[in-house]
Amino acid sequence: MRKIFLGFAVLALLFHGFAPYVQARTGYVSDMLILTFREGPSKSFAVKKALQSNTPLEVLEEKDGYLNVRLTSGETGWVEKQYVVYDPPKTIIIEKLTQQNQALEKELEALQAELENDKRRLSEQAETSEEKTASMKSALEEARKKVESLEGEVKSLQEKYDTLLAQSGDVQQIVKKSELLTRENKQLAKDIALLENQTSHQFRTGMIKWFLSGVGVLLLGWILGNSVSSRKKRRSSLLD
């Protein structure tokens, strides 16, 4: 009986001695807080530094209400578990949304510039067939409609973004919408590049046909000239 009791006591000590394993994950210091970063998992350990709100933390393990974390600098220490959250802070989400919004606006400006260049090239290529020209105009009109639609989406996104800044509401849906608009914008840029390649090919084909037609006319004129000259010489020799 005594041996059994001692065995349970040893198991209890071993279980208590080993800190529970926590799968590494990223946490953040909660809002409106300056959190102490200690050398060990209790207030009796020295404070290494103070961590401000929204500081990212890589959680390594948990022990006695404290978390062993690693900072982005590589430094490790202990913080109180109750002051660590795992949802990205609103300020970080807003910052990412701002960057995505700015990138989207730049892409939109670039797309508008490409459309203006396409319109200029279209006006300069006067020898393009009417059917191809109509097709190009239709494609450009479709692209213009997509741009207008994209501008509306950007405006809607800006309004949602402003609302988020004012109310700190839900931003996940806006981020997904931003990513979708970015993909559509890239596809539209590919369509315009393809349209530009088709226009360039058509222009080169027209120039080749024009050159061959000119050479044919010159060759026919040369043959007719030689034929007339030969007839005149024959007539002159017969008269003599």
Give an account of the 3D structure.
Helices cover 65% and strands 17% of the residues. The model is unreliable at 1-6 and 8-22 (pLDDT under 50). The chain folds into two domains: 15-85, Roll (SH3 type barrels); 90-210. The chain is rod-shaped. It has 240 residues and is of the alpha+beta class. α2 (90-124) runs antiparallel to α3. It has helices at 2-17, 90-124, 130-167, 172-239, and strands at residues 21-29, 34-38, 47-52, 56-63, 66-70, 76-80, 84-85. It has a five-stranded antiparallel beta sheet, with no helix packed on it. A two-stranded antiparallel ribbon has the order 2-3.
Task: Set out the fold topology.
Elements: H1 2-17, E1 21-29, E2 34-38, E3 47-52, E4 56-63, E5 66-70, E6 76-80, E7 84-85, H2 90-124, H3 130-167, H4 172-239
Antiparallel strand pairs: 1-4, 1-7, 2-3, 4-5, 5-6
Decide which structural class fits the backbone.
Answer: alpha+beta
CA-CA gap between termini: 152 Å
Q: Which parts are unreliable, with pLDDT below 50 for 5 consecutive residues or more?
A: 1-6, 8-22
Order of adjacent strands in the largest pleated sheet: 6-5-4-1-7
Number of helices: 4
Estimated helix fraction: 55-70%
Average pLDDT, rounded to a whole number, is: 75
Number of strands: 7
Give the overall shape, derived from the CA principal axes: rod-shaped
Query: What is the count of structural domains?
Result: 2
Largest sheet: 5 strands, antiparallel
Radius of gyration: 38 Å
Order of H and E elements: HEEEEEEEHHH
What is the strand content? Answer: 15-25%
